[in-house]
Amino acid sequence: MEIRVKALPVPSSPLVVKDKVLIGISGGEFGVQCHVTAYDLKSGKQVWRAFSEGPDDQIMFDEKTTEHGKPVGKDSSIKTWQGDQWKIGGGCTWGWMSYDPSLNLVYYGSGNPSTWNPKQRPGDNKWSMTVFARNADTGVARWVYQMTPHDEWDYDGVNEMILSDQNVNGQERKLLTHFDRNGLAYTMDRATGELLVAEKYDPKVNWTTGVDMNKSSPTYGRPKVVDQYSTEKGGEDKNTKGICPAALGTKDQQPAAYSPDTQLFYVPTNHVCMDYEPFKVSYTAGQPYVGATLSMYPPQGESHMGNFIAWDNKTGKIVWSNKEPFSVWSGALATAGGVVFYGTLEGYLKAVDAKTGKELYKFKTPSGIIGNINTYEQGGRQYVAVLSGVGGWAGIGLAAGLTEPTEGLGAVGGYAALANYTALGGTLTVFALPQ
């Protein structure tokens, strides 16, 4: 049996839930109306497909679908787009999905709206940049939360949704924690969608002063945008400078890890800002539909481009933070031994103390690390393994041989110095822990 998704790029990993396999798509930069699809595991037959924007029957909302505990109402998406723009609206689903079997809910995020020029798509552009909780059997949305209405910076909302059961103010809560590219970390009740925490996990984030957490406010749950860093306020062909974070976000696809022992999250981050110049772009099917020129660099007065942090999701506070010369682009691995592993773009595998962040060990692998650190047991011996091979958005200059600073949507110039620290290559390095 073979399942094919015709003519659309599929960079995400599928999630198998009971008798279904769920998969998202990319294509926001080509004006795709994005979706998640559930296929029958045995036959490959499509069971349901839920779009990110469009009429209620396409986005699979009903009268019980809520945001902040209140029904979103009829036509909640198309009311926020001009004309039929929702048909090329983006909101792609190229990231990760999580599943809670006790609630039978699947969680995932949608990406940026199309185009990157916000002047061309007035409105909140729902439901791009949104956390979705959907019934795994039917696809109907239980609740949603739009993190970045009318995104002006390409802050894709697709990063992983980490599920944990924790005690909050003396009450056991089923939580969802999400580190968004927009620089805000969200803690939510995953059963109800209640927003509990929304705080910056890099102090340099400046496009917003924070999220309105006053439940009686008409703008509850919305970020407060700073006009100076609004690409919409600047307008077309105006270069808005010093926006933090850059479009690759305070965290991109590199996954964070949670330790139930420390009750902390370990987060590989980008410490990067940008200049962003939108321009008018016409939609042509199958052609790039971007409409912005970018450049990237460290925050003003600083030289490092990454931090590896420990985060308290109940208070919204950084517990400790380790500086890195470049973005930390690997996944994190938290262990029961109180050690946390991560990799760097220069190629170091590092082990740090989970409580303090103190560096315990490092090893230089042949190339930059953008993959995930793994641990396994064989014959009574524990091993740690990592695949090194520089690439990804931050490493695109090296990987693709690009040299112009604005290439790679601005990443080439920002990470030009990386070539002085590492080289291309793909090597699996395996470590045996002492007996």
What's the helix count?
Answer: 4
How does the major sheet shape up? 4 strands, antiparallel
- The low-confidence parts are 1-8
The overall pLDDT average reads 94
Helical/strand content category: mainly beta
Radius of gyration: 21 Å
Spatial sequence of strands, sheet with the most strands: 1-2-3-4
Terminal CA distance: 44 Å
Tally the beta strands. Answer: 30
Beta strand %: 35-45%
Shape: globular
Estimated helix fraction: under 10%
Describe the SSE topology.
Layout: E1 15-17, E2 20-24, E3 35-40, E4 46-51, H1 56-59, E5 66-67, E6 70-71, E7 98-100, E8 105-109, E9 130-135, E10 141-146, E11 161-168, E12 171-179, E13 184-189, E14 195-200, E15 208-211, E16 223-225, H2 231-234, E17 240-243, E18 257-259, E19 264-270, E20 273-278, E21 292-297, E22 306-312, E23 317-324, E24 333-334, E25 339-343, E26 348-353, E27 359-364, E28 374-378, E29 381-388, H3 396-400, H4 411-414, E30 427-432
Antiparallel strand pairs: 1-2, 2-3, 3-4, 5-6, 7-8, 8-9, 9-10, 11-12, 12-13, 13-14, 15-16, 17-20, 18-19, 19-22, 20-21, 22-23, 24-25, 25-26, 26-27, 28-29, 29-30
Descriptive overview:
The protein has 435 residues and is mainly β. Helices cover 4% and strands 37% of the residues. The protein has 4 helices and 30 strands. The strands form 9 sheets. Strands 1-2-3-4 form a 4-stranded antiparallel sheet, with no helix packed on it. Strands 7-8-9-10 form a 4-stranded antiparallel sheet, with no helix packed on it. The protein is globular and about 60 Å long. 51% of the residues are buried. Mean pLDDT is 94; it is low at 1-8.
